[in-house]
């Protein structure tokens, strides 16, 4: 009798244990619900959650997330993660409140406005401040901040996902997509690869139903992206023929260590971008005096090109001063309380849209993520790359070189796609991936072209083709 008795006991306690951890997770989930934010419009109602997920207990690392359920029938919609780049820039400061979230910040951080082109129309939308040191995400082990590189970022983001899904188990078997822009051109495929790998290793408990990824104006391959930057500056009348000739003479972008002659020539390119907005070359520049944005741009030029070329940051767009509104908003104590951010006062300093210390200490060690594209395309993931064609920082030219280099056979020729009877951009479909341009958008496509970007993401999520009829 002893055997079955022990067995029964074990089963009972296992049951008790799992229901206990389940209820802890659901308690935490309830605690993360955001009732209403300061300055949030009365209607429509927005179902949102935010808080911390521990990604490393020993070091005390926790990442901050903000989650919006889909506006209608969330139980039928996929889960979409959005990441901004930098490294060091906040996905809530850019993605959520400036680009594609349902609540965008307006009036110098005094209020939020409902965004009718929000991406949670068609998806459950998750923003993550990554890595630690960005925004409200923090670590109790300060030496972590000196070890940041692409691997570190991907591992923590993966732990975040697994733990977040424990808190929101209804999304565990949901179709999952990863999206992002700029330096997230590294983060997104790298995280996708990690999920893909871990899915092979242990089907079951931590399986994540990853279906694909989409990246915008993504840093992808340093050689093609640098060449693209130089060619774009020349072909868009930013620099002279002579400067362009020098670049061709002195710059071998295949080597990440530029020669002195190349650096001197590229300095001329950057100096021409000082007076305009490299992230949206036809937009007005933010003229606010003391935003971190303008001071950071200033710092670029003071630190010289070596710093500059690593900095893939975004400071401008339709309202060229928007990132300072986000800083005003997220530094309000009432906002932090409502968002469950910095609850125990553990996040040092001020909330910044982008963190200079993270950018400066980041270890850039990956030259190209194209091999990951090849691998995941073979693995059957849906892969899209889009590009605002007025971005001088990660220009469409470099992205075209990157996509071409994959050597995929063409399925549908380069052609226009339409919205409201206008050409919204162009696209080309390959067997394995699609590339889409958004006409007149800069680095932050959802900010500059909200309606076009909503069509783009919906089409991607449904696995359809962009509208080819006027
Ligand atoms: C960081 O340390 C504080 C104080 O000891 C603790 O309350 C908090 O839970 C720690 N954070 C993490 C993510 O472990
Ligand atoms: C980079 O190139 C410079 C000269 O152009 C050289 O002095 C330096 O050692 C090189 N650094 C690396 C890491 O290759
Ligand atoms: C603009 O910034 C400069 C340098 O920080 C400062 O001296 C000046 O007073 C500021 N002007 C205004 C109008 O805020
Ligand atoms: C978090 O709270 C502490 C204590 O109130 C404060 O010193 C710190 O500046 C806050 N951090 C952020 C990012 O607002
Ligand atoms: C940067 O990261 C690479 C790849 O992980 C590693 O080999 C290298 O040692 C790191 N460099 C520094 C200075 O930490």
UniProtKB/TrEMBL annotation:
Q: Which InterPro entries match?
A: AB_hydrolase_fold (IPR029058), Peptidase_S10 (IPR001563), Ser_caboxypep_ser_AS (IPR018202)
Record-level GO BP terms: proteolysis
- Which top EC class is named for this enzyme in its record? hydrolase
Molecular-function GO term, any one: serine-type carboxypeptidase activity
Q: Name one GO cellular component term.
A: vacuole
Is Lipoprotein among the key words of this record?
Answer: no
What organism is listed for this UniProt entry?
Digitaria exilis
**Which PANTHER family does its entry note?**
CARBOXYPEPTIDASE, SERINE PROTEASE FAMILY S10 SERINE CARBOXYPEPTIDASE
The similarity annotation says: Belongs to the peptidase S10 family.
**N-terminal signal peptide:** 1-25
- Per the UniProt entry, the Enzyme Commission number(s) are 3.4.16.-
A Pfam family hit: Peptidase_S10
Provide the protein name: Carboxypeptidase
Which superkingdom is the protein from? Eukaryota
Per UniProt, the keywords (alphabetical) are:
Carboxypeptidase, Disulfide bond, Glycoprotein, Hydrolase, Protease, Signal
């Amino acid at each position: 009798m002893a055997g079955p008795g022990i067995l029964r006991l074990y089963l009972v306690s296992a049951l008790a244990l799992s229901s206990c951890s389940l209820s802890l997770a659901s308690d935490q989930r309830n605690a993360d619900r955001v009732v209403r934010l300061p300055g949030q419009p009365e209607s429509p109602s927005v179902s949102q959650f935010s808080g911390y997920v521990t990604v490393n207990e020993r070091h005390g690392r926790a990442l901050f997330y903000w989650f919006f359920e889909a506006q209608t029938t969330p139980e039928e919609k996929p889960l979409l993660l959005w990441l901004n780049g930098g490294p060091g820039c906040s996905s809530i400061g850019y993605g959520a409140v400036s680009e594609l979230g349902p609540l965008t910040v307006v009036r110098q951080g005094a209020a939020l406005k409902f965004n009718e082109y929000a991406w949670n129309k068609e998806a459950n939308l998750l923003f993550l401040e990554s890595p630690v040191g960005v925004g409200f995400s923090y670590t109790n082990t300060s030496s972590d901040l000196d070890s940041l590189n692409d691997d570190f970022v991907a591992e923590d983001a993966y732990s975040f996902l697994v733990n977040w899904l424990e808190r929101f188990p209804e999304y565990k078997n949901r179709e999952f997509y990863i999206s992002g822009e700029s330096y997230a051109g590294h983060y997104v495929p790298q995280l996708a690869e990690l999920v893909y790998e871990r899915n092979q290793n242990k089907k079951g408990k931590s399986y994540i139903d990853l279906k694909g990824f989409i990246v915008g104006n993504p840093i992808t391959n340093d050689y093609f992206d640098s060449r693209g930057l130089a060619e774009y500056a020349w072909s868009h009348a930013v620099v002279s023929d002579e400067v362009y000739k020098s670049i061709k003479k002195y710059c071998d972008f295949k080597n990440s260590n530029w020669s002195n002659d190349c650096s001197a020539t590229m300095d001329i390119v950057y100096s021409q971008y000082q007076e305009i907005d490299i992230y949206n070359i036809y937009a007005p520049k933010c003229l606010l005096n003391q935003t971190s944005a303008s001071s950071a741009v200033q710092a670029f030029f003071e630190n010289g090109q070596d710093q500059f070329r690593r900095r893939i940051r975004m400071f401008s767009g339709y309202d060229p001063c928007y990132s300072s509104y986000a800083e005003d908003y997220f530094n309000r104590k009432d906002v932090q309380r409502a968002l469950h951010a910095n609850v125990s006062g553990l996040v040092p300093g001020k909330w910044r849209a982008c963190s200079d210390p993270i950018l400066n200490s980041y270890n850039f060690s990956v030259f190209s993520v194209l091999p990951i594209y090849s691998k995941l395309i073979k693995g059957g993931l849906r892969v899209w790359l889009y590009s605002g064609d007025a971005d001088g920082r990660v220009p469409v030219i470099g992205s075209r070189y990157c996509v071409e280099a994959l050597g995929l056979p063409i399925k549908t020729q380069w052609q226009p796609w339409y919205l409201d009877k206008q050409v919204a951009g162009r696209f080309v479909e390959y067997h394995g991936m699609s590339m889409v341009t958004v006409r007149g958008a800069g680095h932050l496509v959802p900010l500059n072209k909200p309606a076009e970007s909503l069509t783009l993401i919906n089409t991607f999520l449904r696995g359809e083709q962009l509208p080819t009829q006027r």
